[in-house]
Amino acid sequence: MKKYSLLLATALLIFSACSKKETPSPVVVTPPVVVVDTMLYKMMPFPVGAAVNISLMKNNVRYSGIVTKEYNSVTAENAMKFGALHPSQNTYNWADADYLVNYAQLGNKRIHGHTLIWYTSLPTWVTNFVGDSAAWENLMKTHIQTVVTHFKGKVASWDVVNEHFEDTGIPRNSVWRQKLGNDYVARCFQYAHEADPSALLFYNDYGHEYSAAKRTAILNMITDFKARGIPIHGTGMQFHMTVNTSDANITAAITGAASTGLKVHISELDIRLNPSAAQNIAYTSFLGDQQALRYKYVVKTYNTLPVSQKFGITTWNVTDADSWIPGWQGAPDWPLPFDANYLRKPAYKAMIEGGK
Ligand code: 9MR
After folding, report:
1. What number of other Cβ atoms are within 10 A of residue 285's Cβ?
2. What pLDDT, on the 0 to 100 scale, is given for residue 28?
3. Which of 85, 234, 280, 300 could form a disulfide with 263 if both were Cys (CB 3.0 to 4.6 A apart)?
4. Is the CB of 268 under 6 A from ligand 1?
5. Are residues 329 and 335 in contact, defined by beta-carbon separation less than 8 angstroms?
6. Residue of the nearest CA to atom 8 in ligand 1?
7. Under a CB-based contact definition with an 8 Å cutoff, are residues 53 and 74 in contact?
8. Residue 174: CB within 6 Å of ligand 1?
9. Ligand 1 near 121 CB (within 6 A)
10. Active-site residue among 70, 77, 209, 268?
11. Intervals of the chain under pLDDT 50
12. How far is Cα 72 from Cα 39, in angstroms, rounded to an integer?
């Protein structure tokens, strides 16, 4: 009995000690490290895309990883061009383009078709083709309709004709114009529309930001097409620009394109930092910041357009390592929002800022 009362007393003591209102020692919980990461397309108020290289998509996981994570639209940089898709008269090579289309469908990304008719990147069977205008018309129509039909329901938009004008505003003397006359452009749109009446059809060109003459020629052609009922739904401005392109020129290009009432696609954006093609030049954070200001201005100005006209902004490739610019200008450059180590540059954040 004595033993039990001792036990009871001890228990009471412990209880009273525990029930004393003492400040509990703080419980230290280490918070989980939450990395809030951005995905470009989720931060933007309109579709944002990149032109992609199929071999890099297949073989470089850092490259395909960026495309998968950051963009909700893709364009084939080369895989849907005439020479790539249609290497000889009776041969179509769909493999690379189909790979991209399948990738885009699985990832719920839009795929923009580039490009049905262009003056260059033609296979030799076309440049060497001998035939009267009816035979040329048939060649052009067959190519357009075979390609558009193949991708019908998958590729929802096309650059139907690319770069019909010179910078002076006169039509380029391409093989198409030589064989078929100026109005081949309108017929390309009609042929594409016949093959897929629900596809959005774009005229695509460069130089809107530096040549008022070319801009006017494009706007006049679009006005004429609309008056004639030619099925055209959008205008693509490539925007291969330099860090020195002025605000005024960017604004003139964007507002001019919007004045058509059509959808506006900034279709091949890149911003060069070495426009004088200097050989011994290095990337600096100063240059990166200057470039970021241009990217931001482009996105911000574009974002003022009505929602229905904002088809989106596509950069021409993904990283500085993959851009066409250094090869074309024969000098180093860093034109894209990702660097050669696949890291985001100031231009990346600037695009998000511009879209706010
Ligand atoms: O970036 C493309 C490059 O890899 C090709 O060799 C070249 C020729 O087909 O085309 C480049 O892309 C062009 C685009 O198709 C149309 N606008 C100008 C682009 C840069 O030349």
Report:
1. 9
2. 77
3. 234
4. yes
5. no
6. 121
7. no
8. no
9. yes
10. 268
11. 1-2, 6, 11-13, 15, 17-18
12. 10
Domain ranges of the chain: 48-354
For residue 268, indicate whether it is catalytic.
yes
Location of structure tokens 């394109």: 257
For ligand 1, say whether the CB of 238 is within 6 Å of any of its atoms. yes
Burial class of residue 172, CB neighbours in 10 A (0-12, 13-18, 19+): middle
CATH, range 48-354: 3.20.20.80
Instruction: Tell me how far apart the alpha carbons of residues 68 and 127 are, in angstroms, rounded to a whole number.
Output: 37
What pLDDT does 13 receive? Answer: 47
Strand partners, 76: 52
What is residue 90's three-state secondary structure? coil
The DSSP output letter for 121 is S
**Residue 137: partners with Cβ closer than 8 Å, 6 or more residues away:** 180, 187
For residue 190, is it left (φ>0), alpha (ψ between -120 and 50) or beta? alpha
Q: How far is the CA of 339 from the centre of ligand 1 (A)?
A: 20
Going from the Cα of 162 to the center of ligand 1, the distance in angstroms, rounded, reads 11
φ/ψ of 2, rounded to 5, equals: -55, -40
Give the mutation target among 78, 266, 271, 319 for probing the ligand 1 site: most ligand atoms within 8 A of CB. 78
From atom 3 of ligand 1, which residue's Cα is the shortest distance away?
324
Q: What residues contact residue 302 under an 8 Å CB cut-off, 6+ apart?
A: 46, 254, 264, 266, 310, 313
Relative to beta strand 310-315, strand 48-52 is parallel
